[in-house]
What does this fold into?
Amino acid sequence: MYSERWIGDAEREGAERRKLLESLALSVPTTDPGDRILGIYDESDRLVGTGTLVGATLQCFGTLPECRDEGIAARIVSALVKEAIRQGRTELSVFTKPETAPVFGALSFDLVAQTDEVALLEWSVAGRERGGLASYLSFLSAVAEGGPDGAGSVVVNANPFTLGHRYLLETAAARSPRLYVIVVEEDRSAFPFDLRFELVRAGTSDLANVSVLRGGAYVISSRTFPSYFTRDDAVARVHAKLDATIFAGRIAPALRVSERFVGTEPFCPVTRTYNETLKRVLPPAGIRVTEIPRVEHDGEAISASRVRELIREGRLAEARLLLPATTYDALAAIESGRDDDRRSAALWSRITRAGLRH
Amino acid sequence: MKIEKTANAGSLESSDAMVTVGPHPGGIEIAVTSPVDRQFGDRMRRTARDILAGKGIMEGLIRIDDRGALDCTLRARLETAIERGTTPRG
It folds into this structure.
């Protein structure tokens, strides 16, 4: 008979888990205090299986080879799902190796996409027809209904929306019958999603064939691309490929997109890796990738990170030269309102806080 | 009555079922995943509807992840999950 319990951080059990994962040639990522690590033990209190809940993601599974086919995977997944539900989560995902994906398929998880290195599966309390990816794809299909074939697409974080983004979108819009601008929805940037989205919309409102859409959980999100938001560059390549695969196989078909535009990336290594990955993954799926050179100001490529730096240093007037009027006006209003209203004060302190990556 | 919060009961282990419920303004939605969905899916949905109706619940999501549970097991899991989902706190 097996028993289960949560593995604490500093216990000998932590070392046992590491040994188990290593014996299976699995990597042992560092864990955060909020992660919930489950252990399954046999009668002699030997660890035979483990899995971890990180936010809404189930990962880091391992079971001793001699104990497989004994329902241990079902037991681990059950416990992790129940813990996630207890925390109030309604949409869960699994990161695993492609060869293990069928195990989770049999445990009610649905495959979102897989590459040669990783598979992403999901489970939603709303069910496979209404929850998760299905719900996002039906939103996209509704947007694209009546729209043209061969549309273009750009994905932006726009943190915040600069003249660089404006140039990219203007150029792409001029070359596409319709341009879908997908704004990364994950709220882990200095500028909150609502504001980023609003500034993209305001900054493109004069371009008649542009539609601005939210990225949901499937375009550069913590679900598809967790390393984009952390500093784990080693796995960024793996996640980039998964994200590109989801775009090529699921998102582009729903929007009938046949060209993706990206800006050249002079600064950020993760974004550069992502662009390179798009160029490898998208064309075989019939989607062209067109790189548009960054627009420069005073001999330097305009970047949102430079704008954030100027704002942090209190040089909003200089940042103005890199921003469309819509963005500048919004920022100036937040800055001047920060002594009078709470919302502006909170926004301004978030925007000027250092340390967020994108 | 309605489902107030996300809650569940049961497990994904063989011969069991995991029932998860959640709030859903505007009606009842029942989703079933099961290796025997084609033979028994409708029966499981009917069982869920009967139990909801018996408790007077008009709004909620019910997800049944069946792993070959007997009808009595499924009923027990449904009862418990709904009970947990309609209890305001705890």
